[in-house]
Design goal:
Layout: E1 3-8, H1 10-26, H2 33-53, E2 55-60, E3 64-69, E4 74-79, E5 83-90, E6 98-102, E7 105-109, E8 114-120, E9 125-129, H3 133-145
Parallel strand pairs: 7-9
Antiparallel strand pairs: 1-2, 2-3, 3-4, 5-8, 6-7, 8-9
Length: 146
């Protein structure tokens, strides 16, 4: 079974895109070279971060679980052969969004708290956030069963 789903990060889009565009818009009224430099760099960096992280695409094929953020420059893949167990879980609000190391292993998410916990043969775990964790968990379980 193959699986692919893209989850948009609406808050990421709003904050990074909105603040980035606001910074660039302020360039029209600012008359200081230093302020123009700061606003230009800040706005450009925020828009770039928005492009890199505005959504999370998760796919499962016969060999790998693949994660792709934004326009696809930030990617990860995990071999299904190294996985032993999957289950749906809820992330804690304080763990935030993005890519981060938590006490229970690496967390990859874009919004919400639904996730799939993946236990690996080496004893390490990862969690993949999803707005449809049950569907992702079933797809992973079916891929592991084959």
């Amino acid at each position: 079974m193959s699986y692919e789903h893209t989850q948009p990060g609406y808050l990421v889009r709003f904050v990074l895109g909105g603040v980035g565009l606001a910074c660039l818009g302020l360039l029209a009224v600012v008359r200081s070279e230093e302020a123009e430099l700061i606003l230009g760099l800040t706005g450009g960096c925020l828009l770039l971060a928005g492009l890199l992280f505005h959504q999370l695409t998760v796919s499962v094929d016969g060999e790998f679980l693949r994660l792709r953020y934004g326009i696809g420059l930030v990617r990860f893949r995990f071999a299904l052969a190294k996985m032993v167990e999957v289950e749906t879980v809820q992330s804690h609000w304080w763990e935030g969004w993005g890519i981060r190391l938590t006490p229970s292993g690496w967390l990859f998410n874009i919004s919400g708290q639904g996730a799939v916990l993946i236990k690996q043969k080496n004893g390490k775990s990862i969690r993949v956030g999803s707005d449809e964790p049950e569907v992702l968990c079933r797809a992973l379980q079916q891929a592991l069963d084959q």
